[in-house]
Specification:
The protein is an alpha/beta fold and 280 residues long. The protein has 2 domains: 3-66, Helicase, Ruva Protein, domain 3 (Orthogonal Bundle); 79-279, Rossmann fold (3-Layer(aba) Sandwich). Helices cover 41% and strands 20% of the residues. It contains 12 helices and 9 strands. The protein has helices at residues 3-16, 22-34, 38-43, 51-65, 70-74, 98-107, 125-133, 146-158, 200-203, 208-211, 219-231, 247-256, and strands spanning 76-79, 82-85, 115-119, 138-143, 165-169, 180-185, 232-241, 259-266, 272-279. The strands form 2 sheets. Strands 5-4-3-6-7-9-8 form a 7-stranded mixed beta sheet, with helices on both faces. The protein has a two-stranded antiparallel sheet with strand order 1-2. Helix 8 (146-158) links the parallel strand 4 (138-143) and strand 5 (165-169). Bound molecules: S-adenosylmethionine (SAM).
Length: 280
Amino acid sequence: MRLNDLLKLGTQELKNNSIENSSLDAELILSNTLKYKREKLLCNLNWKANKLQIRKFITDIKKRKNKIPVAYILGKKNFWKTSFLVNRNVLIPRPETELIVEYLLKISKFNSKNNILDIGTGSGCILISLLLERKNWRGTALDISKDAINVAKSNAKMQHVLNRITFVNSDIDNFSGYKYDLIVSNPPYINSSSIKNLSEDIKFNEPILALDGGYNGYSEIEKVIKKSAKLLKLKGKLILEIDHNQVLMTRKFLKKDNFYINSVLKDLRGLNRCIISTKF
Ligand SMILES: C[S@@+](CC[C@H](N)C(=O)[O-])C[C@H]1O[C@@H](n2cnc3c(N)ncnc32)[C@H](O)[C@@H]1O
């Protein structure tokens, strides 16, 4: 069967099942099946797929029809400059989280030395991206989920930064460590009762531990701020991802714990997304 016909078939199947980006998803799934880059696939649509490839493509299209996110089907997701391994034990890295990486690279020198803690590391995408760009930085990757820590370790190994990261499987509440120069965190911040309103892709597939921020959405944000107040060096920075409507309350928590608020960064949609503060 020609690749063009396979693509049309997959796209139509996804469209019939109300998958939003049906054509892009079918392309990504077929590129992955063939182990081609998407560009190579699109330039060779007259080539033919063999039986095995057709079977795999159809199986993966079925998964997507059942609302499994493309990143989990492919087992990887691009973030910043790297591709990260992902599975259902970790949140799929989001483009808005790249704001944290972009900001820290902008304010730090190439040869700077920093010890950084990533609270709720998930796939390790934030910390690993930073360590790849700053060769003198070391970090601690902490997560309450043992399975997430294992994914982060695999990513660190793949990116050759394993020897610069200490992995800690713990609730942030129970962690006491060194004093850090920087703390980054993208904690779960959706309130428990809103989880049911998320898309099926998210609510039935991504780990609840990565999404659920308690009854008002602030339980993990508060924990991160309180603990960071103890773990940061004087003038150390906390870079926290939050939901766009959580700025006011988060500011209050930060001020209560003696943080000075430097700025709030907006994501590509123009929504407040990241709050930068300094420990005093
Ligand atoms: C929103 S995900 C962020 C993952 C990754 N940092 C990213 O930005 O893609 C939040 C992560 O925090 C972890 N987590 C949730 N509650 C925690 C807690 N109390 N202590 C430590 N980690 C926690 C979850 O297991 C999950 O991996």
